[in-house]
Design goal:
about 475 residues; Aldehyde Dehydrogenase, Chain A, domain 1; Aldehyde Dehydrogenase, Chain A, domain 2; 7-stranded mixed β-sheet; 6-stranded mixed β-sheet; about 40% helix
């Protein structure tokens, strides 16, 4: 039997989890099992499905401390950030329990008084949920919980980096009342098993969050007619206007760039700053970056944890080295907590200036704690640069002027726009999704919006003959 193992990125010799890895046949069997119970689960009363999701939320809440520790050990984020992720996951299950009662239809006027016309929302069938390692609990919950709420069954394919968290999530759902056959887990990193999973005949929808490259591979493996919801990369910029509260903006921009080791699709990759305040704002950012520390997730002195994998550390390190070789200057950089294991996958929060405009640190997704300062001549130039990007997930503006903010909100061609807030962070109820190359399938996640992806609309004309 092939196994999948995970190790602590802060101490790579520390084994965290070992689970069986799926082969192509296992993936197909999981889909068939989920398909086999779809009729029962989809026709269960909404109250029964809601009760199971409330049960899962209760299980997760009861295990919050253990789950936060496991997330920190397996993915690397600080325990404090992991606690926040567990809390959001509990919220997502509680919200999804409400969705079980909100899969509503509508009534319509017809050409005949004897005919009634109305719509029903109908669950799709088997939904495959494929999730990344950076939020192994909450991103999985955002896909799994609403799918189950409206009567779909789910095959869950988590990242091979965080198998332990995924097993605990599924177990909590099962203990809470979700039938084991209605939520199956397929572990591993076998490309053939992944292709067999999304290409199985009974799959009706695939929801995926991850890289552009993996998304392209999945597109080629999904059968025609299968509904897709892909949340892909982000290349996010914040704009700091001349009238901004610079102290507040520096705190928010630094948090959006360096928090969670920058390993977030909504992280700030570059900050466009009005040239008149660029020097002052850069100094404020540099001061913040210099005070940040990296260390083990369970070390209270650490502001951020390690990179999740050695490959992630090496990629971001190479990007930084390439930028400085091309003429970029390091304006501020954090430090390691004293006594930290040097074998860990460490990245330090780093602020760059004078980065060439055509360098990948400016033109591509960083997905690490590197932030570039780019001076601009006012909001219009910044908007033009921001809107020229293919990846249009989230952007932010920092200004005291309501008119400037309103123009930016209307003109920014992005799925999400924030005003005087960091680019990272989102609630469980509002829609979450990008535009352009950041998304594929045109179905945002989150709250009631999830119903659009997870159900079909059936239109009924009913003439009850006397």
């Amino acid at each position: 039997m092939t196994t999948l193992t995970s190790y602590n990125p802060a101490n790579p010799s520390e084994l965290v989890t070992e689970v069986p890895a799926a082969r192509p046949g296992d993936a197909v069997e999981a889909v068939q099992t989920a398909h086999g119970v779809f009729a029962d689960w989809s026709t269960a009363p909404a109250g029964r499905r809601a009760e199971a999701l409330h049960g899962a939320a209760a299980q997760l809440a009861a295990e919050a401390a253990e789950l936060a520790e496991l997330i920190s050990r397996e993915e690397g984020k600080t325990v404090g950030a992991a606690r926040g992720e567990v809390a959001k996951t509990v919220e997502q299950f509680r919200l999804a329990a409400q969705l079980a009662f909100l899969a509503e239809g509508s009534t319509y006027p017809t050409e005949s008084a004897a005919v009634s016309a109305f719509t029903l929302r109908v669950p799709l069938g088997v939904v495959v949920a494929i999730t990344p390692w950076n939020f192994p609990l909450s991103l999985a919950a955002r896909k799994i919980a609403p799918a189950l709420a409206v009567g779909n069954t789910v095959v869950f394919k988590p990242s091979p980096v965080t198998p332990g968290v995924s097993e605990r999530l599924a177990a909590a759902c099962h203990r809470g009342g979700v039938p084991e056959e209605a939520l199956r887990v397929v572990q591993g990193d076998d490309p053939e098993a992944m292709a067999a999973l999304v290409g199985a005949a009974q799959v009706r929808a695939v929801t995926f969050t991850g890289s552009d490259r993996t998304g392209a591979a999945l597109h080629s493996a999904v059968r025609p007619g299968v509904r897709v919801q892909f949340e892909l990369g982000g290349h996010n910029a914040a704009l700091v206007c001349a009238d901004a509260d610079l102290q507040h903006a520096a705190a928010e921009v630094a948090g959006g760039a360096f928090g969670l080791t920058g390993q977030v699709c909504t992280a700030t990759d570059r900050v466009l700053v009005d040239r008149s305040v660029a020097a002052e704002f850069t100094e404020l950012l540099a001061e913040r970056a210099t005070k940040l520390t990296a260390g083990r997730g369970d070390d209270p002195a650490a502001a951020m944890g390690p990179a999740a994998t050695a490959a992630q550390r090496d990629r971001v390190t190479a990007l930084l080295d390439s930028a400085t070789a091309a003429g970029a200057k390091i304006a501020g950089r954090g430090t390691l907590v004293p006594g930290t294991d040097p074998a860990g996958y460490w990245l330090l929060p780093t602020l760059l200036t004078d980065v060439p405009a055509d360098h990948p640190a400016i033109t591509g997704e960083v997905f690490g704690p590197l932030l570039s300062v780019v001076p601009v001549d006012g909001p219009e130039q910044a908007l033009a640069e921001i809107n020229a990007d293919d990846h249009r997930l989230v952007t932010a503006i920092h200004t005291r002027d309501l008119a400037t903010a309103s123009r930016f909100i209307r003109a920014a061609r992005y799925g999400m726009v924030k005003v005087n807030e960091r680019t990272t962070g989102n609630g469980v109820a509002p829609p979450f999704g990008g535009w352009g190359a950041s998304s594929s399938g045109a179905f945002p996640e989150g709250g009631r919006t999830a119903l659009d992806f997870l159900t079909d609309t059936k239109t009924v004309y009913c003439n009850v003959l006397a």
